Amino acid sequence: MANKGVEPRAARSVHLRYKVPDSATSARNTICVRRCQTGTYFCAINFRCGYMGIQQLYDGKKVVIFSVWDNKTDDDPDVDRQAKATYKGEGVDIQRFGGEGTGLRCLLPYNWEIDEDTPFRVDAETDGKWTAYSGHYFDQRKNSWFHIATLKTLTEGKLICDCAAFVEDFRRDGKSFHEKRKACFCDFQFLVGDRWTKCDEARFTADQNPVLNINAGCEGNQFFVLETGGDTCNCDTPLNGTVKIE
Predict the structure, then answer these.
(1) 8 Å CB contact between 24 and 32
(2) Where are the domains of the chain?
(3) How many angstroms separate the CA atoms of 223 and 175, rounded?
(4) Rounded CA gap, 23 and 7, in Å?
(5) The CATH number of the domain covering residues in 14-198
(6) Bridge-partner residues for 93, per DSSP?
(7) DSSP class per residue in 104-145
(8) Cα–Cα distance between 111 and 141 in angstroms, integer?
């Protein structure tokens, strides 16, 4: 499953990449976790300037997460490159983050469950060179949509596009490689004008981790499936292949 002589520290990050036009103003997707381990991120919507989904943290606690990056391209020292929060939902903790880029991260405790659908939606609205991204998730406990936050970042007027879903092992302690993670992603759609369009195919990609215990496929005619770690077998879709719902 790994290169001979190399002890992997993490399960490989795996992605479903969707074709979304630059003119899309909203995107939505639903996660259903089938198997989880601590230190896992199940991302419903990774878009041009951020991402959102659910996590199980190192201590086992479960959260909803919504993040937007600072502008990365403008070198002018007089340009304000930091993302800003213009709305925060009740109970949401917003902090700055670093590491893989910088930006604002929103966390909200949410005890999501295995085999439970959690829908997400992100809306984009331009304001000159800035874009405000509003993140929402459907709270199954309250049977209603919850507005997590609206985060504004410098984009030169760009909207959503470059969308993906992913499963990531962020624990990376050497043991996590041997633990399986699996999630289904259904009903990815994007909005252009007043029309929602459903994506019935996605490209299967992964990070530079060379391990081979990864997989992507379909479950029935509704779900995309991503798996990584443990005894996962790459038996459905080759890396960089296309997963299609018939």
Answers:
(1) no
(2) 14-198
(3) 29
(4) 44
(5) 2.60.120
(6) 107
(7) EEEEEE----TT-EEEEEEEEEEETTEEEEEEEEEETTTTEE
(8) 9
Read off the pLDDT of residues 43-96 as tens digits, 9 standing for 90 and up: 999 999 999 999 999 999 999 999 999 986 656 666 678 999 999 999 999 999
Residue 207 backbone dihedrals phi, psi, to 5 degrees: -75, -170
The token pair at 9 is 């520290």
Residue by residue, what is the 3-state secondary structure of 65-114? Answer: EEEEECCCCCCCCCCCCCCEEEEECCCCEEEEECCCCCEEEEEEECCCCC
**Angstrom distance (rounded) from CA 118 to CA 123:** 17
Q: Is 138 exposed, middle or buried (0-12, 13-18, 19+ CB in 10 A)?
A: middle
Task: Tell me the C-alpha to C-alpha distance, in Å, between residue 24 and each of 73, 127, 159, 197.
Answer: 22, 16, 7, 10
